[in-house]
Write a structure and sequence with these properties.
Elements (H helix, E strand, L loop, with lengths): L9 H40 L9 H31 L1 H19 L5 H4 L2 H29 L7 H5 L1 H23 L2 H14 L1 H12 L6 H13 L6 H7 L1 H32 L4 H29 L1 H24 L3 H19 L2 H6 L7 H10 L1 H4 L4 H12 L3 H20 L8 H14 L7
Helix pairs in contact: 1-2, 1-3, 1-5, 1-7, 1-8, 1-9, 2-3, 2-5, 2-17, 2-19, 3-5, 3-9, 5-17, 7-8, 7-13, 12-13, 12-14, 12-15, 12-17, 12-19, 12-20, 13-14, 13-15, 14-15, 14-20
């Protein structure tokens, strides 16, 4: 039986855990500020200055979204590479590298010449930098959530590990606020000529803060223990191939859980901008202002729902989000069509509230699927690969459907079908509320022993 730490150690453990959460969130805010800064700029700026002009208002937007999708294609590769080395060398070292890489790529985006200046080299360079950005973000998520999950108590892992997820809307909020301030203080000509670049250049300051905060934490004891065992043994393996060989169900379940969540998020925060700005001709500054409110709501509800998973369980909470996702499109787009700012922001907030029921439980669920020796690879693979066919294509598919049919109905049906895929994953997943990561490692050792492999020296 595991020993119980003295009560006097509790404040120290809580203080250490809060420091880990802060470090994880600081870097995640940075990386997603920069990733979503591109997402917003793709709709408002890049479609106008980085691509050839077109009589079709949707054509340059789709072109911008294609370069946007490149980041999603790069994310699984980043997840695989960072996962492999993160399982070998530690979560902290890889997270520090990721934050620098995404910062450099984003700063250089702010230096890019326009299509009028260098022609097709502009979108080509944009694609290259977007790939580097996506590669870094692909490695970021797994390390950030595991840094917290592996430090968290079993009974409250859902709450604590949801905080890095709350950093995502914070990063999105910062990106939206920066662009909102610039768009309101500058003329449209000034904003398109040079104003948008300021948001990308500001990444240098945010990266420096995030990197410093991440130097103040260490990897979790459970990881350090397993790392030492593997180094002594030289027999137990880690990495993507080992995950696929021994835990294929976990990878497939993670992908299924991610599918509707990822599609829904980018319909709410990215495609909705296109729908409101192009189809309904709502003012850009007004849209950004409404998104600010929605991101604040999202940021607040994520840890609350994370805590709910510790009380009700992971499955029922995720089920609520999945069913809500199936219905959201049929509810939200008629609300958008009213052109009433209060009703529009209510529709966006509803979407992000529903999304949180799927997003908040993911770190705990995925952490509890894989043993420590391959956890970084497992969660990164399950989380990031799905983005290629989910989030990366969602704005493109939705915009194409809107252009083809001139109606939101096909878009709503598209999201409902995605929710059906995720529903299958929710039904088939195991309930892991309160499970022990140490027990998961023990069971993994037993499986290895049965195959004649030992992690002991």
């Amino acid at each position: 039986m595991a020993s119980t730490a003295p009560t006097s150690d509790a404040p120290m453990r809580q203080s250490s855990l809060r420091r880990v959460v802060t470090a994880s969130m600081a870097g995640t805010v940075v990386e997603w500020y920069e990733f979503f800064l591109y997402a917003t700029a793709a709709t408002l700026v890049f479609n106008k200055i980085m691509f050839p002009p077109s009589d079709d208002p949707y054509a340059p937007i789709i072109a911008a979204f294609v370069t946007y999708a490149v980041g999603f294609v790069a994310r699984p590769l980043g997840g695989i590479v960072f996962g492999h080395f993160g399982d070998k060398y530690g979560r902290k070292k890889l997270l520090q590298f990721a934050i620098i890489l995404v910062g450099v790529a984003t700063f250089l985006m702010g230096c890019l010449p326009t299509f009028d200046a260098i022609g097709y080299w502009a979108p080509a360079l944009l694609v290259a930098l977007r790939f580097a950005q996506g590669f870094a973000v692909g490695g970021e998520w797994g390390g950030a959530v595991l840094l917290v999950s592996e430090h968290s108590p079993d009974k409250t892992r859902g709450f604590w590990s949801s905080w890095p997820q709350a950093a995502v809307p914070i990063g999105n909020l910062l990106a939206t606020v920066v662009l909102l301030v610039l768009s309101r203080t500058l003329s449209e000509e000034q904003f398109l000529a040079w104003g948008w670049r300021i948001g990308f250049w500001l990444s240098v300051v945010i990266v420096a803060i995030g990197y410093y905060v991440r130097t103040r934490v260490t990897d979790a004891p459970i990881f350090l223990e397993v790392q030492q065992q593997i180094e002594r043994s030289k027999a137990a393996r880690y990495g993507v191939l080992e995950v696929l060989k021994r835990y294929p169900r976990g990878v497939l379940t993670a992908m299924g859980l991610r599918f509707a969540e990822n599609i829904m998020y980018y319909l709410v925060v990215t495609f909705s901008i296109t729908y409101l700005a192009v189809a309904l001709e709502v003012d850009t500054a007004e849209i950004l202002g409404l998104l600010v409110i929605a991101h604040i709501v999202h940021m607040i509800v994520i840890p609350l729902i994370g805590g709910l998973t510790d009380r009700l369980g992971r499955k029922p909470v995720y089920l609520i989000g999945t069913l809500g996702a199936a219905a959201w499109g049929f509810i939200a787009f008629p609300m958008f069509d009213t052109r009433n700012p209060a009703i529009i922001v209510a529709a966006i907030c509803l979407g992000l509230f529903i999304h949180a029921f799927m997003y908040a439980p993911q770190p705990a669920i995925m952490s509890e699927m894989f043993p420590t020796r391959m956890r970084y690879s497992g969660v990164s693979l399950g989380y990031q690969v799905t983005s290629i066919v989910a989030g990366s294509l969602a704005p493109i598919i939705a915009t194409a459907l809107l252009r083809e049919y001139g109606s939101y109905i096909p878009v709503a049906v598209y999201l409902a079908i995605a929710a059906g895929v995720t529903l299958i994953a929710v039904i088939s997943m195991r309930e892991t509320k309160g499970s022990s990561l140490h027990e998961l490692d023990r069971l993994d050792e037993e499986k290895l022993a049965a195959d004649g492999v030992s992690t002991r020296a």
